Amino acid sequence: MHIRNKTYCVNDIYRLDNIPYTGRGCCAAILDTGIYPHPDLADHIACFQDFVNGRKNAYDDNSHGTHVAGIIAGNGYSSQGILKGMAPDCRIIALKILDKKGNGDKDSLLSACHWIRDNYRKYSINIVNISIGSDTADCNEEKDEIAAVINHLWELGICIVVSAGNSGPGPGTITFPGTCERVITVGSDALLLYSDEGGAKSHSGEGPTKCNINKPDLLAPGHNIISCHNRYNGYTVKSGTSMSTPVVSGAVALYLEKYPWASNDIVKQNIKLSAADVGLGRNRQGAGLLNVKHFLEQKPL
Asked: How does pLDDT run across 91-106, given as a tens digit for each residue?
């Protein structure tokens, strides 16, 4: 079938108003373009750090980071409760590592990861969302300094959710740091929305990685997602694995509210076990499409 033109609110996709969890008690660090203090988000921005321009007050000169934050934790205030995110009671740490054009560098990413390492206990950070990516030149890049720091954050017990990138289709197109083995790497369900007969193709990254690791781990909604914009009361629509990733981060927040003792390894195991097989190859769909209801039914062992 051809791609649908409708816009989607993530809360409606999964009918989350029928689920008695809102991400309360959870805290997600978002490494992105910053965050605009949108009315849907302002009350739960726990901290803002700017590793690009060194500014003190929260801002987003691009809108990407605000959109991602809204998918995770928007409370729908400006839409009378209609356009809510996955976990509207999840607290947000916004770490600006990308400039107004959405570009960033290794030093900013490293600095943000080091900040999380030093402050995760202070803010009770249990989720990190990284909706960014760069193409990997070879296997060594998957094992470099950034990968080591990200793996260390995982070892601290933090759930790290990373986009598969939009460099697909085709094998070996997962972008870094989504190529890191331990993180939860998320592709877009746009793979399911395109026809092979004249329709455009999804750009969601596909595995295996250069180090021959099977990725992504799963798919999530990522096409025509409506969320917060970087202007007062504003909303906008964006597509890509950058949008799929916070859908999974929000689902993780719901799970950790229900099962606060669950380890990040158990979270990753159960989110994959509960995913819906959509009939694609392992390196296209991972375990399948995120199923929030079944995920929340998977008790930690």
From this structure: 999 999 999 999 999 9
Confidence tier at 5 by pLDDT (50, 70, 90): low
Residues 6+ apart with CB under 8 A from 12: none
Q: Which of 131, 163, 188, 242 is catalytic?
A: 242
Q: For this structure, is 44 an active site residue?
A: no
- B/e letters for 255-275, b = 16+ CB within 10 Å, e = fewer, are bbbbbeebebebbbbbbbebb
pLDDT value at residue 193? 75
What value does the mean pLDDT of the chain take? 93
Rounded CA separation 296/298 (Å)? 5
Mean pLDDT of 263-287: 97
Q: Determine which one of 38, 40, 63, 64 is catalytic.
A: 64
Domains of the chain: 10-297 (3.40.50.200)
